[in-house]
Specification:
- This protein is an alpha/beta fold and about 425 residues long.
- It folds into three domains: about 140 residues, Resolvase, N-terminal catalytic domain (Rossmann fold); about 100 residues, Alpha-Beta Complex (Hect, E3 ligase catalytic domain fold); about 140 residues, no CATH class.
- Helix content is about 45%, strand content about 20%.
- Strands 1, 2, 3, 4, 5 and 6 form a six-stranded mixed beta sheet that branches. It has a six-stranded mixed beta sheet with strand order 16-15-14-13-17-18. A two-stranded antiparallel sheet has the order 7-8.
- A hairpin with a 2-residue loop joins strand 14 and strand 15.
- It is elongated, with a radius of gyration of 35 Å.
- The termini are far apart.
Length: about 425
């Protein structure tokens, strides 16, 4: 090098969080001191240290998006730097691919590179060879560490341990374990129960927002939040790692039967199932239909004859009395459900009735009439029928000679927004 020419040297320093173990040796001050001492040793060759500090704190060498590094490269490209000095090669980059790109840029800009502790100087051929060897081993070491970390996390997951990530709503992390938060756990239970009743994630989210509850981050609930809760195995005390489900260390918030029922509904295939000696069916009028004579709910039941199930809605008060005095008693489920569907269709085909409902629900009457002209029930699954009735009907009162309907005006909004948007 020409001793008469000043060789402008920039010292680059980087310290990441993982360097904390060796902070005494890897501190920014120690790196800068080593760089400046090396430059001073080359003062006879015209080396001078630029006053500007290029220091990145708490940033990984695998990430090239570092403020001080960007400033350094900009000054190199502008011709303000002749040599880049670092304490070790990995201070500049831990990736051989990234460093290869940096080397191309340094060559293009006429900038050399020096590593103080590894005796590397890219102004010589031996220095360039040593640099390539070191970077190859650095990349290999990084990949091995990464593989070991992934393997350890996978093994911990399979043992049911919490290894980090987004903490499920309803839990908090204490000493590396998930601990139930009672108030949030109650909300989670309500989400599962209300979904099984309404089969509408959007309606469940609406009810949570209406009650004043927010997510952990203080945001309004959406149906996306509800779906994530309904599909999280943490709530039954399990861990799902890449499709492998095993028992977790955390306590469950809901029971297996509620989880199973929820996922039968989510899959769109809710068959008849055994549950503590009884059969639970997809009953669209469950919780909606009441006996007008006895002022009690009518519950779905079934009887089995000749290998076939027959379903009914039965007056619960009449059942408890032990004697049949209710004029309704029980009604074939298929018949009453068909009557209800026909009546709803008839009412929603009446322009005057639709106008009244639309005004209360703050919807457009023409749009509502157009939507309900369709054959709504054709092709609908039992799950969709259940959801529609729960959204639309507050209560059905059964008399021996008539039916009375109470509509949910708010539910009409959901139908127009959700069903309407998907079928128009």
């Amino acid at each position: 090098m020409n001793r008469e020419k000043k060789i402008r040297c920039a010292v680059y320093c980087r310290k990441s969080v993982e360097d904390e173990v060796e902070k005494e040796f890897n501190s920014i001050d120690a790196q800068r001191e080593a760089g400046e001492m090396f430059i001073a040793s080359q003062r006879g060759n015209g080396w001078v240290c630029l006053p500007r500090h290029y220091d990145d704190y708490g940033l990984s060498g695998g990430n090239m998006n570092r403020p001080a590094l960007k400033d350094l490269l900009a000054d190199c490209e502008s011709g303000l730097v002749d040599i880049v000095i670092v304490y070790k090669v990995d201070r500049l980059s831990r990736s051989i691919v990234d460093f290869a790109e940096l080397s191309k840029d340094f060559d293009k800009w006429g900038v050399n590179f020096v590593s103080v502790t590894q005796d590397i100087n890219t102004s010589t051929s031996s220095g360039r060879m040593m640099l390539n060897i070191l970077m190859t081993f650095a990349q290999y070491e990084r990949e091995i560490i990464s593989e070991r970390t992934r393997d350890k996390m996978a093994a911990s997951r399979k043992k049911g341990k919490w290894v980090g990530g987004i903490t499920p709503y309803g839990y908090r992390v204490e000493k590396g374990r998930l601990i139930i938060v009672p108030a949030q756990a109650k909300t989670v239970q309500n989400v599962f129960l209300r979904f099984c009743e309404s089969q509408s994630p959007k309606l469940v989210a609406y009810e949570l927002n209406k009650s004043g509850l927010t997510t952990r981050k203080g945001k309004a609930w959406t149906k996306g939040h509800i779906y994530r809760i309904l599909n999280n195995f943490s709530y039954i005390g399990k861990v799902n790692y890449k499709g492998h489900v095993c028992k977790g260390e955390q306590d469950a918030i809901i029971d297996d039967e509620l989880w199973k029922r929820t996922h039968e509904i989510l899959s769109g295939n809710a068959p008849v199932k055994e549950f503590k000696g009884k059969v639970e069916t997809v009953a669209p009028l469950r919780g909606v239909i009441h006996c007008g004579h006895c002022n009690g709910a009518m519950s779905p039941i079934y009887t089995r004859k000749d290998g076939k199930n027959y379903y009914y809605y039965i007056c619960s008060k009449d059942e408890k009395r032990g004697e049949r005095i209710c004029p309704i008693g029980r009604m074939p489920a298929g018949d009453v459900e068909q009557i209800v569907r026909n009546k709803i269709s008839e009412l929603l085909s009446n322009p005057e009735f639709v106008s009244i409902i639309a005004a209360k629900a703050e919807c457009e009457p023409l749009k509502m009439r157009e939507f309900f002209k369709r054959e709504m029930w054709e092709g609908m699954t039992p799950m969709e029928q259940n959801r529609l009735i729960n959204l639309l009907i507050e209560k059905i009162t059964v008399w021996s000679d008539s039916l009375e309907f109470e509509f949910k005006t708010q539910g009409m909004k959901f139908i127009m927004e959700d069903f309407g948007s998907g079928q128009n």
